[in-house]
Amino acid sequence: MSSFLGSYRHQLDGKGRLSLPADFRRGSDADVFVLVQVQDDALTLFPEDAWGPVQEELRELQQRNPEARHYVLSITASARRVVPDSQGRILIPEQLRDAAGLDGEALVVGALNKIEIWDPERFQQRTGDRGEEVAELAQRIFA
Amino acid sequence: MSSFLGSYRHQLDGKGRLSLPADFRRGSDADVFVLVQVQDDALTLFPEDAWGPVQEELRELQQRNPEARHYVLSITASARRVVPDSQGRILIPEQLRDAAGLDGEALVVGALNKIEIWDPERFQQRTGDRGEEVAELAQRIFA
DNA sequence: CCACTGTTTCCCACATTTCCCCACGCGGCC
DNA sequence: GGCCGCGTGGGGAAATGTGGGAAACAGTGG
Prior knowledge:
Two copies of one chain form a homodimer.
Chain A: E1 7-11, E2 17-19, H1 22-27, E3 33-36, E4 43-47, H2 48-64, H3 69-78, E5 80-82, E6 89-91, H4 94-99, E7 105-111, E8 114-118, H5 120-128, H6 132-141
Antiparallel strand pairs in A: 1-7, 2-6, 3-4, 3-5, 4-8, 7-8
The structure holds a DNA duplex (30 and 30 nucleotides).
């Protein structure tokens, strides 16, 4: 299984391309990713092998709970299959760029089995205020 | 198996033709689709291989539950086998165009094993209000 | 049975976008 | 110091979405 760690501040060039860190490129077996917006404050990038199970769960959710149809649609509508070019860059569609508030620079963050793409300033804000109970709970993991 | 992702805003020209995104054209092995209205707010486009199982289930439903006969009939009546032209466009019959409230523009949305065709504004409305329980359920998928 | 009309299908054409490839500069490592 | 890897930039070629014209077709009415 792939494990992505670290954060990298990369440029988002005029054409909307973003270089993936070389580490992340090597970290995934295949060269195919799925870029999708599952949170409203950042984009998420799944390597293909991690996306497969997610897709299956989406389908099950949809079958079990018809209410979920529109929700699943909103996810798949935002999703995009992306393949890095020979320089290891992916193209981020304008639609997603706007949705995540990206312009000029982006923070590429390793998140274990997936990668998150943030606007650097927004990342600062959102990770600044940790809920206290959560922090306490989390501390036990490292004990 | 084919997996359709992404949303594309395409023109619906004077003749009622709609270009399928090139990604979707490649995504399906065969060049044959079934266009049908199974939801009241959008049209659905199945690649031929995904339609097969659906057809079987319709038959079973009909056998088990005679009440369903009229329902199944209304589905098959609206359905249409379509083959994209050499430019990758399909013709959407007027009847279906009206039923889905399409005029001028259409949003072609990937929905995993099938494709949905929406009026852009309607899509905005319907996907905007996520049920809270559903959203919560769904968030676990991405953890 | 034939002529007519409206619809569908095939083909050609164009503008824009996207993709692919080459090139540069910086930095670390041998 | 030279080499290699990496992030960044850009130019040219191919692909894509869109429009329209003419041929083929089907259905209708005379």
